[in-house]
């Protein structure tokens, strides 16, 4: 029997080490390290019988807009499992802890994502889930664009006073520890650049195949065109999140002018990448894809426990990318 519980301050170093384990890619392995000091989420962890950190996950309960009223809903994310301990009943024990937390402080539903191509997670969580586990209902596709920043003109504005009441949009926008923000607005489209580099760091863990040898030549080409370079192994990828993106309607021309301002502001802050999350059905997605980017797709799920009705088909919910 493993030890599954909520994290304590003395677990911080082990949690950060587990979060930083490399995630294999086709050409590049990346490491997503998180800082767990002053963490707003509930951090669930699992240790083996010998005390080794085996798994972690995050549960947060933000106040979101639902049908015109504020409602507490959940986010499930940040799942990390040490490859050495996969397949040792970790998932079942982790869901048992999650169920206890849910019963002590229930919400109607949670939002979660599974990266496209992660067939193991989809098979375990969706297709072959045990009866006692929560049910995962597909609710659209999230497209994450890693946009290349450029020296566009921009103008910083004050944080908005009003609140966007779009479905699943956050009612509150509290800043994380060490976070910096800059807001940009253009004709009804507004959002902010979130610098979370003090608490979340993406590093290159290593390169594969020919890219290991071609990286210097590739960087010469990138430098000639003033585009982001491929950093050395172990180096930080400099990027920021586009957060709390909202508009008062369908404004394609305004969005097309707003996005360059965000890219220019990110470049002015020394960032090479701007991470923007838009659902596949979002009318602004085709506009965003006109800019240079790398695209990552994830399946969005609305997660509910047994006894609750299946959710109505209301379209893809808004997701705050930095919370996933």
Describe the structure in brief.
The chain has 324 residues and is α+β, with helices and mostly antiparallel strands. 21% of the residues lie in helices and 34% in strands. The chain has a single domain, classed as Aminopeptidase.
Tell me what you see in this structure.
The chain has 324 residues and is of the alpha+beta class. The chain has one domain (3-323): Aminopeptidase (3-Layer(aba) Sandwich). The protein is 21% helix and 34% strand. An 11-stranded mixed beta sheet has the order 1-3-4-7-8-15-9-14-13-11-10, with helices on both faces. A two-stranded antiparallel sheet has the order 2-12. Strand 10 and strand 11 form a beta hairpin. The mean pLDDT is 92.
Topology:
Layout: E1 3-6, H1 12-19, E2 28-34, E3 42-47, E4 53-60, E5 63-66, E6 69-72, E7 74-81, H2 90-104, E8 110-115, H3 119-127, E9 135-148, E10 180-186, E11 189-195, E12 200-207, H4 211-224, E13 239-247, H5 252-268, E14 273-279, H6 285-288, E15 293-304
Parallel strand pairs: 7-8, 13-14
Antiparallel strand pairs: 1-3, 2-12, 3-4, 4-7, 5-6, 8-15, 9-14, 9-15, 10-11, 11-13
Report the radius of gyration as a whole number of Å. 20 Å
Based on CA inertia axes, which overall geometry fits?
globular
Distance separating the two termini:
29 Å
**What is the helix fraction of residues, given as a range?**
10-25%
Q: Which band does the percent of strand residues land in? A: 25-35%
What topology, given as strand order, has the largest sheet? 1-3-4-7-8-15-9-14-13-11-10
- Overall SS class: alpha+beta
| Poorly predicted segments | none
Q: List how many beta strands DSSP finds.
A: 15
Query: How many strands, what sense, and barrel or not for the largest sheet?
Result: 11 strands, mixed
**CATH level-1 class:** Alpha Beta
Tally the structural domains.
1
What do we call the CATH topology? Aminopeptidase
Look at the structure and give the mean pLDDT: 92
CATH architecture: 3-Layer(aba) Sandwich
Given the structure, what is the number of helices? 6
Encode the helix/strand succession as letters.
Answer: EHEEEEEEHEHEEEEHEHEHE
């Amino acid at each position: 029997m493993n030890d599954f519980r909520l994290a304590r301050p003395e677990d911080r170093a082990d949690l950060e080490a587990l979060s930083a384990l490399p995630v294999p890619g086709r050409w590049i392995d990346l490491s997503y390290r998180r800082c767990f000091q002053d963490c707003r989420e509930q951090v669930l962890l699992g240790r083996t019988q010998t005390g080794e950190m085996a798994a972690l996950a995050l549960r947060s309960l933000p106040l979101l807009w639902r049908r015109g009223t504020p409602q507490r809903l959940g986010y499930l994310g940040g799942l990390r499992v040490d490859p050495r301990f996969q397949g040792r009943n970790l998932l079942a024990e982790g869901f048992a802890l999650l169920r206890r937390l849910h019963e002590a402080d229930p919400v109607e539903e949670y939002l979660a994502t599974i990266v496209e191509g992660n067939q193991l997670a989809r098979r375990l969580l969706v297709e072959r889930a045990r009866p006692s586990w929560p049910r995962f209902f597909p609710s659209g596709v999230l497209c994450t664009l890693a946009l290349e920043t450029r020296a566009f003109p921009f103008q910083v504005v004050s944080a908005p006073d009003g609140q966007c009441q779009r479905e699943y949009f956050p009612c509150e926008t509290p800043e994380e520890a060490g976070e910096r923000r800059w807001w940009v607005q253009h004709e009804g489209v507004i959002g902010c650049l979130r610098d979370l580099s003090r608490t979340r760091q993406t590093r290159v863990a290593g390169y594969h195949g020919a890219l290991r040898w071609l990286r210097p030549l590739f960087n010469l080409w990138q430098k000639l065109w003033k585009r982001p370079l491929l950093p050395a192994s172990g180096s930080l990828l400099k990027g920021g999140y586009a957060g709390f993106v909202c508009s008062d309607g369908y404004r394609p021309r305004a969005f097309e002018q707003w996005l360059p301002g965000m890219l220019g502001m990110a470049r002015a802050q020394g960032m090479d990448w701007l991470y923007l999350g838009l659902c596949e059905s979002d009318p602004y997605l085709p506009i965003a894809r006109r800019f240079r980017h790398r695209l990552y797709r994830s399946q969005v799920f609305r997660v509910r426990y047994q006894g609750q009705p299946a959710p109505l088909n209301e379209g893809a919910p808004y997701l705050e990318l930095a919370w996933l």
